[in-house]
């Protein structure tokens, strides 16, 4: 079993006898069971206790060390630098730049960027995903993990977007968010295969919320317009370290 997979069925109760419904006690239904999933991020159901518990997931690496001396695979944005416009007018696309921290033993070539968003009423949240083709040789065991940040190289800076946030054609005003989520190498293989938006959200929500990966954007008609991008003049955007 993949070491990143959460075990959702932690136990099973046995029916010890039949009790007529009219005489059965009103047992506590609990928070969840085999047929009722947990609603919070990064939680799974302990079906014996009927409680939602934090899934035992490794979010300090995106994959196991390579089994051989070389590898070629898709690697997600895990650590690095991001810049984005944190204020804009309603209906504008939000410029974003993404610079992944890449181990010196890795050659990063082609990349893909994908963004999506969803709203419940005017409560809107977005995702910014980026992954790249990584080829490596003679790499250490922590090549996909939190190696010393002083070793980071930044061979790619990706010009990306988020939004515009306009559910049903209505431009949203107020505070929205964009997230640069934790995903594994296996996860981005699935995303790259063509997952639908809701399936991507399900992947992301399997991992605990990390406020170091989520940034607020203020959308207000009184704001200055967002710049075209965050690469030509990064001072027009706000820049942050992620995972470093």
SSE ordering: EEEEEEEEEEHHEE
Portion of residues in beta strands equals 25-35%
Compute the average pLDDT. Answer: 86
Terminal Cα separation, in Å?
29 Å
Class derived from helix and strand content? mainly beta
- How many helical elements? 2
Poorly predicted runs of 5 or more residues: 1-26
How many β-strands, per DSSP?
12
Cα-atom radius of gyration: 21 Å
The percent range for helix content is: under 10%
Q: So what's the overall shape?
A: flat
Main pleated-sheet profile: 6 strands, mixed
What does this structure look like?
The strands form three sheets. Strands 3, 5, 7, 8, 10 and 11 form a six-stranded mixed beta sheet that branches. The chain has 244 residues and is mainly beta. It has helices spanning 185-192, 197-205; strands spanning 43-46, 51-54, 70-76, 80-84, 87-88, 94-100, 106-120, 123-137, 158-162, 174-179, 214-219, 238-242.
